[in-house]
Known about the structure:
It contains 7 helices and 8 strands. The chain is an alpha/beta fold. Helix 1 packs parallel to helix 4 and helix 6 (230-238) runs antiparallel to helix 7 (241-265). The radius of gyration is 21 Å and the shape is globular.
Amino acid sequence: MEHFDVIIVGAGLSGVGAACQLRQRHPRKSFVILEGRHALGGTWDLFRYPGVRSDSDMYTLGYRFRPWRDAKAIADAPSILNYIRETAAEFGIDKEIRYGHRVRHASWSTSAALWTIEAETDPIQPSLSTQHSVLSTEYFTCRFLYLCTGYYDYEAGYTPNWSGVERFRGQIVHPQKWPEDLNYENKRVVVIGSGATAVTLVPAMAERAAHVTMLQRSPTYVVSRPAEDKIGNSLRRFLPDGAAYALTRWKNVLLQLFFYNLARSRP
């Protein structure tokens, strides 16, 4: 049973960010990142549906301690994934990740002031093996448990049920498990929902599908915004990366606060 001062669960955007700040602020603390999958990046590596991108600008979604340097502020998944990988490598976080370690149970002992973590381990990456690997269990203890797993159910995304679905002759696809060989060219498509996934999925599918319909329960207010932040890109021409990034970050944070409070006070 290995002991660490801190155990971080999840090697996505949040988990890597937490590890980087821990290394900067508490360099003497021991830590490990337990990642259930065999890849770094979380959401931005897992989701493969057309058009997948951030619905927030990367000046506010990105790390405070590492500037976002791409021209596009509303970034696609490959760009965000590359940003996470570069950050992990720069701070040496990639060496602290235990892949194939899916946390199944965590218990706290008040008398010992310790967390005990039970992780199901799968050392073989599924894509590299044609045989089922033998799962085993490892145990860890820590003083502080940091959960960075997000709010998605990665194993079973929500799928609505309705009467008569068994009579539907078409194909039903969940964006969270998008088939690599899915061909929707010249087909009529209905996308159920109007959240961030639908807003990115519909325009991308419309380029090849015969017709795409978004079916929504309640109207969503959508604002058209440019992919590039002209002020942020201009500031980088005259200021160091860190200063330009901080100014743009605060500009965007204050704008979001303004519109949020405006929507609450004058809906």
